[in-house]
Amino acid sequence: AGRGDTGLGFPAAGYDSDQPPVAAADVVFDKGEISQLVTEQVGGSALFASRFRECAARALLLPRRSPGKRTPLWQQRQRASQLLQVASEFGSFPIVLEAVRECLQDVFDVPGLTELMGDLEARRVRLVEVTTQEPSPFARSLLFGYVAQFLYEGDSPLAERRAAALSLDSHLLAELLGQAELRELLDADVLGELERELQWLTDDRKIKDVEGVADLLRVLGPLTDAELAERGAEAAWATELETSRRALRVRIGGAAHWAAVEDAGRLRDALGTALPVGVPEAFTEPVKDPLGDLLARYARTHGPFTSTQAANRFGLGVAVTDGALQRLAASGRVVQGEFHPAGIGQEWCDATVLRRLRRRSLAALRQELEPVPPAALAGFLPQWQHLGDNSLRGIDGLARAIEQLQGAPVPASALEKLILPSRVAGYTPAMLDELTTTGEVVWAGAGALPGKDGWLSVYLADSAPLLLPPPHPLEETALHESVLTALSGGYGLFFRQIADQVRATTHPDCTDPQLADALWDLVWSGRLTNDTLAPLRSLLGSGRTAGSTAHRARRNVPRGRYGSLTAAARPTSRTGPPTVSGRWSRLPSAEPEPTHRAHALARTLLDRHGVVTRGAVQAEGVEGGFSAVYRVLAAFEDSGQARRGYVVEGLGAAQFAMDGAVDRLRAASTARDRADPGSAPRALVLAAADPANAYGAALPWPESPDGAGHKPGRKAGALVVLVDGELTLYMERGGKSLLAWPTDPADPALHAAAQALASAARAGTLGTVTVERTNGVSSLTSPLGKTLEAAGFLATPRGLRLRA
């Protein structure tokens, strides 16, 4: 740091040395002390004097002598200075407190400074000293205001009064600044442990001999026989010290105590204690503040205490004790405030003890803030999204589940088989139809898949304009345009009404199958929706191949795309094929304001994931990727709606989380670490593309087991089985291939995963499952085959099969 700048924007004024100042020593402070230091120093500044004058003028405490004339500025400063001399003696004077608040909050960013000091301590911010030829822009602005500082220099109190310029009521000032009391920040367990150390009650401080008793009496002060025994001392040891005139028996507060002979004069002068005959004269000489010495030692050896507790200890009146403690507080030896987590009202604490307590509480808090392992996130996500806890029930529970899922593309085939039933207890398709037919929920296609499946998203109707993505690219034909034109009125139409309009305008020869194909093309591209999911269920249950005009044959019976007969042989119906039933309409128009859309998207991601990471956003295919929501999440952090930090290990620092989610995630991680090794593992079957599955999204897929010919992915029809957050099984659609990460057949996690997979198959959720290959080898000869057979799978020529 050179003459003009310290490198951090602070002018290096006041140094007469040829050597530059050391920035680390001059601008780095303890995070827990910086706020108090600024508060103590601001009262002697010219800034405070000018702010006090303005506050006093607003409060009409500086009335004009002549209402029709302005008061000269020098006269206002003089009268404000006189008012400050009187007001500074009263700690609760409101104008003084308001002036301090303006300085600390409106002028100085003290919370930001405290955070910076914390970042420096935690090594999140690095301090670099540089030498510049001229001041930085920040320092230049300070130098520019140097003349203004001299202008108000006379407003500040005189030098001999600056040390005691202000007597602030710290409690009222904290309320005014909106600061939390320390009792809300200190850890009760840490406080209990520190008090035991200060009182020599820990195992490593047990008294072992006579010299230990002598040291104990000097450090802790007078103690009773019971208190000595509690610390491991034998009764004969104190008697031996009395015989050698190194300790004496005294009565304090009506009880017998042992005291070190060095305390004889203090006990006599402070408490009026009668001393035994024979105390050497050197130990009875008067001291400057005997009561202050006793109370200071009491404070050094205790945690936060009240005046009543100290008075009871020494058999004194509360007023006498409180006055002595006030004198100690004036000299900075003790601090008054609200400290004990279970306390009520004002307390006292030794300044050094309080510093140790804050640092230990911070260390305990930092230990809790350590990033959790990735498996903890995988176990937390299903809990956060209400999987398997039966907390969501009925229509309201389904609406809450959809609120968390809205905007996330999921396989249509898994929506009502795995995703919604795992979240809502007693789910039935009629529940979802009730929400869609009443207009409370909207569903939209998000891309077709090979076969008869497709990607699907659900939305609450109020949020759909904010969250609907742009439509997917589609090679629009004249038929597609005709269908969109028929639905351009903003209302819903049945299939037959659409067909009549299309045939009456542009395509008189259009057949029902052709029109149905066009409708589903528009659905999967994200342009149309229906007021029920009945046509989607019919489509998934039919033999139709999405995006293909080929017909499938089954058992040599001609089969059309939408029924058991071909389109030519099927009787005509005024309602149309089952795969196009219900009322069709265009999706609502997207919100034109991009800021509103980005805000809604970021809030939905936080609600769905709890902890938003780059991988989770990319897995959902959000337009613009993680950078599209990063700025909004950063703004949420500034406004206190989200917290950025290193929450999950190995996922980078760009993690944004809700406060409640962080607490639950860490609680889940702690419970997982403390779980009884003999307890039964908890297995959960999920669709691989379920937003509650962290693998392949927030977390990378683990390496494929030896011999496996392919890697897992978030594919339609694929399943994962998680055991206590660890990925244990991955199964392709229908079970053709199975990957198992515990390769030991005796692993309890593997048995739990196989049982969960078999239970899901028996319940009809998965249909018939035939596992042909396990970890790249035939399941009939695989070491893991025995585990599957134990779960209920039966050997067949094709592999291990389990029917619903």
What attributes does this structure have?
804 residues; 6-stranded mixed β-sheet; 24 strands; 44% helix; flat
Estimate the helix proportion, in percent. 40-55%
Query: What strand order characterises the main sheet?
Result: 16-17-18-19-21-22
Distance between the termini: 76 Å
Question: Which stretches are poorly predicted, pLDDT < 50 over at least 5 residues?
Answer: 1-16, 151-165, 543-573
Overall geometric form: flat
Structure summary, number of beta strands = 24
Number of helices, where a helix is a run of at least 4 consecutive DSSP H or I residues: 34
Q: Which radius of gyration do the C-alpha atoms yield?
A: 38 Å
Average predicted local confidence, pLDDT: 80
Share in β-strands: 5-15%
Structural class: alpha+beta
Can you summarize the main beta sheet? 6 strands, mixed
Question: What features would you describe in this structure?
Answer:
The chain has 804 residues and is of the alpha+beta class. Among the domains are: 23-179, no CATH class; 188-368, no CATH class; 701-802, Aminopeptidase (3-Layer(aba) Sandwich). The chain is built from 34 helices and 24 strands. The strands form eight sheets. A six-stranded mixed β-sheet has the order 16-17-18-19-21-22. It has a three-stranded antiparallel β-sheet with strand order 6-9-8. Strands 10-12-11 form a three-stranded antiparallel β-sheet. A hairpin with a 4-residue loop joins strand 23 and strand 24. Helix 5 (94-107) packs across helix 10, helix 25 (478-486) packs across helix 26 (495-505) and helix 29 (594-609) packs across helix 31. The longest helix is centred in the middle third of the chain and has 18 residues, at 351-368. The two termini are 76 Å apart. The model is unreliable at 1-16, 151-165 and 543-573 (pLDDT under 50).
